[in-house]
Amino acid sequence: MNTPAAAWNIYRTRFLIKAQQLTQPLAFVDPLGREHRGQPGDYLVEFSDGRRSIQRREIFEDIYVAMGPADESWPSCVRRHEPLASLRPCITGPPAAA
Fold first, then answer.
1. Which residues on neighbouring strands pair with residue 17, listed in sequence order?
2. What pLDDT is recorded for position 74?
3. pLDDT reported for residue 4
């Protein structure tokens, strides 16, 4: 097997998401007109900007690691009218010591 000359890098996903595993089929059309379909076992994913999509179980469980239950204030740090470029990560807990 030929490998490229570039060195290997480690990656992680950049975003926190909220998700729930589907227990029955689900289909919906998002605000951009894209159709999403999922089957039991797939995941309904909500991003911090309010967008939703469905991801196949195999892909979702390969990418994401559970961090605990989401509370009702999700996403408390995002105002839906802000452009995506202006969104900053949510910071929770006390400020870091200087």
1. 47
2. 60
3. 57
Largest interatomic CA distance in the chain: 50
**How far apart are the C-alpha atoms of 9 and 29, rounded to whole Å?**
36
Query: What count of Cα atoms within 13 Å lies in the side-chain half-sphere of residue 28?
Result: 10
Nearest to 23 by CA among 37, 4, 43: 43
**CA-based torsion, 66, 69, 74, 76: positive or negative:** negative
Q: What is the 3-state secondary structure (H, E, C) of 3-51?
A: CCCCCCCCCCCCCCEEEEECCCCEEEECCCCCEEEECCCCEEEEECCCC
